[in-house]
Specification:
It is a single chain. The protein is of the alpha/beta class. Helix content is about 25%, strand content about 15%. β3, α3 and β4 form a beta-alpha-beta unit. α1 crosses α2. It is elongated.
Length: about 200
Amino acid sequence: MSFLDLPPEIRNQILRLLLTHDTPLKIHHFASLTPPTSTPLNLTPNILLANRATYNEGRTILYGENKFQAHPMLLSRTTFALCARRPVSPNCLTFIRRFHIRVRLDSDPFYDAQMVHEAFDGVEELEVEVFRASFEAGCYRALDGYVGVRRVRKARVHGSIEPEFARWLERCMMSKRGEKVGEWEELGFSTLELVEMDTVVR
């Protein structure tokens, strides 16, 4: 009996053991202010080289069920696992549904709100890690584009950010398109009133 003779459910269980991980990633790219630290992922992607059928089944698991780093300037158009110098092949980008991105508050982003919306609206998971070069440097305007993201199944915002604002931004990203999610002004971060998809992303 070969691997392909096994029932699909058994094959998928085996592939998930070989191709998925839940290790928190410590990444190395040019936007980082700390020295790089390698993260052992303990994956076995060589299983994808066995044959075409295994490759087709396995890559949806490898790319669809793991979290990848979105590029700090190019967003989901360039993603990588641990190092920005080794991006994911463009042929596999459409399978990625779980993202982690680092947003620096004390510098202007290289993207606008529409680009953020197109990159992350409706994804399975989005983790936004906020950081700054020094204490109280910068402002939350760098996060404006993420206010317009909607229909994220699981959102997490953390880092150099007040907890109440992080929870509010998570609610924004996990809400439905057009749904009112509360008043931004109540948190004292902007003059915007009710934050909805239509008021942020044109």
